[in-house]
Specification:
about 120 residues, alpha+beta, five-stranded mixed β-sheet, about 20% strand, globular
Length: about 120
């Protein structure tokens, strides 16, 4: 694997402004805040773990937006703000424990397959 951790930040913007969505501007600010937080925790790039933070297309979790997901764990966060970036990065680069107040449960493909088999 090229990266130890990968942060995907939804940048979807709905045309219907009456419905919640993540937003391109919010996503770009969050990506930068995540990158800044990684650099703050690991100022020496050679010693840093391999981390990527990037904006992505719709994560299909608009009702929980703004959202992001962390891989390889598959941990989902909703209602995130740029002020949450440092806490999220510290949690995932430290002990790998999700930030519970922001964590949202999104079924993994394996969970969905199990529920349809029942």
């Amino acid at each position: 694997m090229k990266y130890d951790k990968h942060f995907f930040v939804c940048q979807n913007e709905r045309s219907d402004s009456s419905k919640k969505s993540c937003g391109k501007e919010q996503a770009q600010m969050m990506v930068q805040a995540l990158r800044d937080s990684v650099r703050a925790l690991h100022p020496n790039p050679a010693a840093a773990i391999r981390v990527r933070a990037q904006a992505c297309a719709c994560l299909d979790a608009c009702a929980d937006g703004p959202t992001l997901v962390v891989y390889p764990e598959g941990v989902w966060y909703g209602g995130v703000k740029t002020s949450d970036a440092h806490e999220i990065v510290k949690a995932h680069l430290g002990d790998g424990t999700p930030v519970q107040r922001l964590h949202i449960h999104r079924p993994q493909a394996s969970e969905q397959a199990e529920s349809t088999e029942r």
